[in-house]
Amino acid sequence: MAAEGCTALPWRDPDWPRAGLPCHSADDARSISAPDMNGLLRPAETEALLLSLEVALRSVLFSLPPAILIAWILARTRFPGRTLLDAFVHLPLVLPPVAVGYVLLLLLGSRGPLGRWLAGHFGMHLAFTTAGAALATAVMTFPLLVRAVRLSMEGVDPGLEEAARTLGAGRLDRFASITLPLVVPGILAGLVTAFAAGLGEFGAVITFAANIPGVSRTLPLALYTAMQSPAGDETALRLAVLSFALGFAGLLLAELLVRRLRHRREH
Fold it and tell me: Over 90: is that where the pLDDT of 20 sits?
């Protein structure tokens, strides 16, 4: 049942919680702006910050293995449909995040084909959970990680791999001993960039995981909630500044990591 003062939403998934888009209860507004003089951040803001860090970290850890594989396929192989795969991988960059979240909801919601299968065979539920927020974030940041790793792989001299092949090294050995060490700067840069972007993901998360305190209310969702409160301007400003600081620090760290690793490799 929708919260008092809110209009029921016509989502197809019956598990859509009352804390989701587009409205919030009075308790939500009070919790996000409840005063706490013991620290710089209030309890709800600290909770949103820690949850954002958790979601972003889980998303990049989930994305890294397939991102390396896809980047290697795009950088080192030629096959029919390669251009289509490249376009599909980068599709989240040009789609509205809400559309991505809605597709995830249709596929992985309690009535979706994959959602029913996961629930029936493994008892796993992703929609409206922290894991679902991490999955939605992973989908949105996956192209950033793939692109960084792919560009780094394309910068590796294929002659090095060919020389190793002539010495009897197999494809996996060549990748593990030559290619992978040389693309570490690209991997780290992609990880940090995807992590920083994941901290700010909004549309896909609120559509697939809703806006549940302690479960899926990350920093951007907490900022959105504060903006809906008449007394939330101070909280919204604080969260906005924190989001800017985290994003800037992430991008700066990615650039410093790449420069330092390149410098060490050249010397």
Answer: no
Whether 258 is covered by a domain: the verdict is yes
CB 231 within 8 A of CB 61: no
User: Are residues 60 and 191 in contact, defined by beta-carbon separation less than 8 angstroms?
Assistant: yes
CA atoms within 13 Å, Cβ hemisphere of 84: 3
Per the structure, the count of domains in the chain is: 1
* Mean pLDDT computed over 23-49: 62
Whether 92 has a pLDDT exceeding 90, the answer reads yes
In-domain check, residue 164: yes
Under 8 Å between Cβ of 257 and 195: no
- The reply to whether 35 falls in a domain is no
Q: Residue 15 above 60 pLDDT?
A: no
- Establish if 27 belongs to a structural domain: no
With CA atoms as reference, report the closest residue to 12 among 212, 207, 217, 203: 207
> What is the gyration radius of the CA atoms in the chain, in angstroms?
21
pTM comes to: 0.82
Give me the domain span that covers residue 255: 41-266
pLDDT (average), residues 153-158: 82
- Whether residue 3 has pLDDT greater than 80: no
CATH number of the domain enclosing 239: 1.10.3720.10
The Cα–Cα gap between 45 and 65 comes to 32
Q: Which residues contact 236 (CB under 8 A, 6 or more apart)?
A: 223, 226, 227
Rounded to whole angstroms, how far apart are CA atoms 38 and 178? 52
Tokens of 265: 């490799």
